[in-house]
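Holo prediction. Input below; ligand is zinc ion.
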Amino acid sequence: MIKIFTKKFHHLIIYSFFFISCVNNNTTEITDNTYEINSITDEIYNPKKTGRIIEAIYLDNKIKLLEIENNKYLFDGDIVLEREDFKLLNEKKDVNQSKKNLWPEKNIRWKFADSISSDLKEKWLVATRMWGTQLDFNFIEISEKKGDYILIKQNYNGSAYTTSIGKKGGEQIISIDPRYYGSGNIAHEIGHSIGLFHEQKKSDRDNFIKINYTNLKPNWVSPYEKSKTRTTTPFDYNSIMLYGSRASASVVYDSNTPIMTKKDGSIWNLQRAYLSTGDKEQIRAMYNEE
Ligand SMILES: [Zn+2]
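Structure of the complex:
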């Protein structure tokens, strides 16, 4: 009896130590990335290692990508691409074009990865209802990984990201750390997954906002670059795809100074509670429901 108790107690110590180690590791990792804990925050992939910035063509757009770990490339803060997704400026190869990246019949097939918390599951379902009820997207849960689908994953490094703008073909991922991101942030990632870029990149944005480039760290210029492709629907301050006026300390030198302001110098708060009129107009235009 004493022996059994001792053995169990021994295991308990080991497990406790392991648990404490994990907690400490996570805390350290987040602190190292100067990640800020806010109730609502811009979606961001928290890379551990970054390399060169390279120019590429993605979905007919000329873009800048940041090399990150595991041969991945970060576009615009929260879109993680692989080498096969884009081409270099003078490279000749076929890649997915924007005309082919919409979900047919607005049917979005999806699956939870293994080991997803009930918290994240609930947040995902709330986010799908935002797009489903207002814009008639059909979110279809699948049991087998076949065809085109979104795999919903959980991460533990303060990231919220997706792996495609629009339908990638085959598997694409939305990965969320539910400790820091809510259903509104997931709705933002769904926005990317059905074809939306960030609102502040729209070609008409200079009529509405000013960007304070001097406050921006070099690796994070891309999300604030204006698209050269003419956008079909106007810029909207209430878009769920628009970043807030202020950005986190990983992105800017001074997080108290706004990175974006309205033309009159005033600021806005990040909006992740609903789909704006502009968001709906843009989706209807893209999916040809004028
Ligand atoms: Zn985003």
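The longest helix spans residues 2-32. That is the main takeaway for now.
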